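Title: Prediction job returns without error message
Component: structure pipeline
Severity: low
Priority: P3
Assignee: unassigned

Description:
Job completed but the reporter wants confirmation the result is attached to the right record. Sequence as submitted:
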Amino acid sequence: MEFIDYYQVLGIPKTATEDDIKKAYRKLARKLHPDLNPNDKDAHKKFQQINEANEVLSDSEKRKKYDAYGKDWQHADHFEKQKQYNQQNQYQPSGGQSFTEFEGGDFSSFFESMFGSAGRQQAKFRGQDYHAELTLSLEAAIQTQQQVLTINGKNIRITIPAGVENGQQIKLKGYGAAGLNGGPAGDLYITFNITPHPVFKRLGNDLYMNVIIDLYTALLGGETTIDTLSGKLKLTVNAGTQNGTKIRLKGKGFPVYKKEGEFGNLYVTYSIQLPTNLTEKQKELFIQLKNLN
């Protein structure tokens, strides 16, 4: 397994604080996001590396293991148990070399020195999990689609079901780093980032929107046409509709994740737009209307 210096990836010193790590990651994430670098064929790899680095260094326990064991940090617990076992049983490898002499060295060689090449082959460890972020628009998340991700130089085609939510995470088993000594590969975790929409607000499977109607339609009733994520929709406005009136359109919201044919609701709130720049004649008519009350 190739060693990756996570501190170098984020461009920070080993003495960096948690806040330093967070700032460095956010800065690089904005700069190196694949959607912002469509012409960079290595963009996915770079973005993946900064996510890996942030995952490890922002977690105090993982960082401690990484600082102590380098590329073998995921197997730190095993090394520690073996160290305790050796101390309890006063084990000492041939040649008088103590266990502590291997600290900070190559732990792959450590296994071989203790148990020989056969023992090294028997010690199988699961590979590291990978974490990635995938950004989708609200329009894209409303329908099932396929996308191609590049992981370790390989293209992986994944199907994203309609209705995926912001912050939702899915697991692709076996698409992480290769295992050590024939151990199983890690998994790939994808977190979805659904970008905010200028018109619709999503809460769960329900959608919310504001619709402007004119004073005359609100007073006298009529029709108005709205643009939804699935096309245009004609609404009937009741006479005497008040500003802030909310109506529910059943089944016109977001598709329910992995439930074919099920949808949330669309809630429409009416905002009444008052007429401006009235002519003298129009003002006179409003005065007459007022005096009738």
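Comment from assignee: result matches the submitted record. Residues 91-107, 113-121 have pLDDT under 50 and may be disordered.
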